[in-house]
Amino acid sequence: MAIPDLTHPGAVKYAVLVDVGYLYAAAGEVLLGAKERREYRVAADELIKTLQRHAEERLPGELLRVYWYDAARDRVPTVDQRVIAALPMVKVRLGNLNARGQQKGVDAQIRTDLEALARHRAVTDAVLVAGDEDMVPAVEAAQAYGVRVHLWGVEPPYGTNQAERLVWESDTVEVLSAEFIRPYFSRAAVIPAPPQAPSPAQVFAGRTATKPVVRPPQTGVTKLGPSRPRVEEVGEHVAQKWILTRGRDNIRDLLPGPILPTVIDTELLIEAEKELGHSLRPYPEARVWLRDGFWARVYREFDIGVGISSK
């Protein structure tokens, strides 16, 4: 197979394969001294766009897609993973996350995809963001089919965070500086300890002191829609189901709220409409009530003070 001429962009077609476990761990360590993912937040969508632009500068050709390899408990995607999966030109691949927080099956997925892309000549070049020596056989297999492999790593705080043999076998090697990735990582906000439960006297005293909320008359369209108590009930029910099926850790990623990522907000709407048996889209107030019910259940789950509304 002839080696493509990089001076002609049309001759180059590439994919970007990202081992998220390596990328996040290496970045968390050099930027924040963090050892666990829950210690920091990542603006993954912006980070992916930046990686795409960086690859375009290095490989002036056609991007096939970005492969985003991560892990989740029982392979149930987290909130962040669902948002990433909705991005254009991005394919999320999930391995399993065991009880000790260890990723299982991720390396195998990367190796399988890299070899398949090369064997079917789907790409001429592959950008690999990884550090594990287990990637070496896949790199060698891809190169045997004529694909160039460009290894990217994250600047380590000291020494190296990539296997020496993986560095040797790659066609080019680049280290992404701490400053390059810094804008996308921030320390996670600490959720305050739950306040002590108020006494009945305090609860009723607070209610007495609170002025009643005077709401404007509802329009005729809203009157034809579902009732507020019913919609809030459905919102709480969806939240309860998600806590049970997706896990408390995944729902915790939504905090502190009350704004939901667009993808998650759409999922909430769809599930609520299924339960109600009709659409809520003509009723803007009903969507607000739905979010109120959802957050009421989530805040109770994590013992966060009441009174927070999405309005």
TrEMBL record:
Looking up CDD domains in the UniProt record yields: PIN_NicB-like
Q: Which residues form the signal peptide?
A: none
* Residue intervals of the NYN domain: 14-160
The protein's GO terms of the molecular function aspect are: RNA nuclease activity
User: Which top-rank group of organisms is this from?
Assistant: Bacteria
Q: Pfam families from the xrefs?
A: NYN
Gene3D superfamilies on file: 5'-nuclease (3.40.50.1010)
Q: Which InterPro entries match?
A: NYN
Q: What name does UniProt use for this protein?
A: NYN domain-containing protein
